[in-house]
Amino acid sequence: xxxxxxxxxxxxxxxxxxxxxxxxxxxxxxxxxxxxxxxxxxxxxxxxxxxxxxxxxxxxxxxxxxxxxxxxxxxxxxxxxxxxxxxxxxxxxxxxxxxxxxxxxxxxxxxxxxxxxxxxxxxxxxxxxxxxxxxxxxxxxxxxxxxxxxxxxxxxxxxxxxxxxxxxxxxxxxxxxxxxxxxxxxxxxxxxxxxxxxxxxxxxxxxxxxxxxxxxxxxxxxxxxxxxxxxxxxxxxxxxxxxxxxxxxxxxxxxxxxxxxxxxxxxxxxxxxxxxxxxxxxxxxxxxxxxxxxxxxxxxxxxxxxxxxxxxxxxxxxxxxxxxxxxxxxxxxxxxxxxxxxxxxxxxxxxxxxxxxxxxxxxxxxxxxxxxxxxxxxxxxxxxxxxxxxxxxxxxxxxxxxxxxxxxxxxxxxxxxxxxxxxxxxxxx
Length: 429
Prior knowledge:
Elements: H1 6-17, E1 22-32, H2 51-61, H3 64-71, E2 74-77, E3 84-85, E4 88-97, E5 106-115, H4 121-127, H5 145-148, E6 154-155, E7 168-174, H6 193-204, H7 218-223, E8 226-227, E9 232-236, E10 240-245, H8 255-264, H9 266-289, H10 297-314, H11 325-337, H12 339-389, H13 394-412, H14 415-428
Parallel strand pairs: 7-10
Antiparallel strand pairs: 1-5, 1-6, 1-7, 2-4, 3-4, 4-5, 8-9, 9-10
Helix pairs in contact: 2-3, 8-9, 9-10, 9-11, 9-12, 10-12, 12-13, 12-14
């Protein structure tokens, strides 16, 4: 790589102009779903069979718990004719409920587009609002989420501390015969570096000029690529994910029809589950940071523990199936957002707060028992003496009670009494 960045500029020009044989784009964004949409239930059918058969086929690939999280509260729709704006055609939309305690109306929307007659990377750069990109935002006009989902769902800007400012994108591109720089060498079967750089550009929505790769980082970057097969690879980043073919796409009937079905189906499902997990972990992290904001620590900690348990049983899955690339994609998403480490920290913090709440409750119980002891011992002693003496005089009873109260007040001034009062004050705070 030259110091002047000429190689970056050359790759940038080539990547910006690269137009694939098949080009699709899925856009994931958060929405509010106040009521179930009037759409067919289940995921968007990719193959020729209907929605029910599509859902059943996908459920068989995943564990039962992952299937419930992905398909029990999911809807899809297609429009006929499909809306078109410039090179983009809307193929369908999906809604997936991902409710939480704080946001019971939380959901994810997926917009499926096909891109024809124009390169894919400039559209992705426009979505990422990269500096110098002159193309308009693709999600404007008729493709604005507020327009597409009007009367069904309300788009919202995520407010969590780790939330993205732009939607998550999943790009798919297969090369024509003249895009040789991303294909395997016919003699050695090796992939050129440019193939992984284009894959990184599609996933990051940035050209090599936008984010110049350091030569030292190239081996690590290439190691992060998921080689699904000899024909195509995938890469998951924080801004988006991408799938790239490594041989010419011959058109209808080619293997890439099946590959595109997987990219829009089970592999997208893995990223949807990861996105839902990230949103819930963001919320739990934020709520843990405010656990000391108000009184009632024990109640707040108990509520957090219940929510953590619900999240673990509903969404927290690190494996979708016994095998397959979907697992690798989900684990790659986890690694990008450090979800396992963050959830382990949530569990550790919740355990510490639970111990603290338990100690406060024990302190409160001990303080209450101490008060009973300080108050009850003088009174019971005075009454016992009167009973032994056989004294039934009301005056003597009042005198005995007054004496016991004086003894109690005196006891509260001792070191033990002050400790009891301090314990009660500490438990109330």
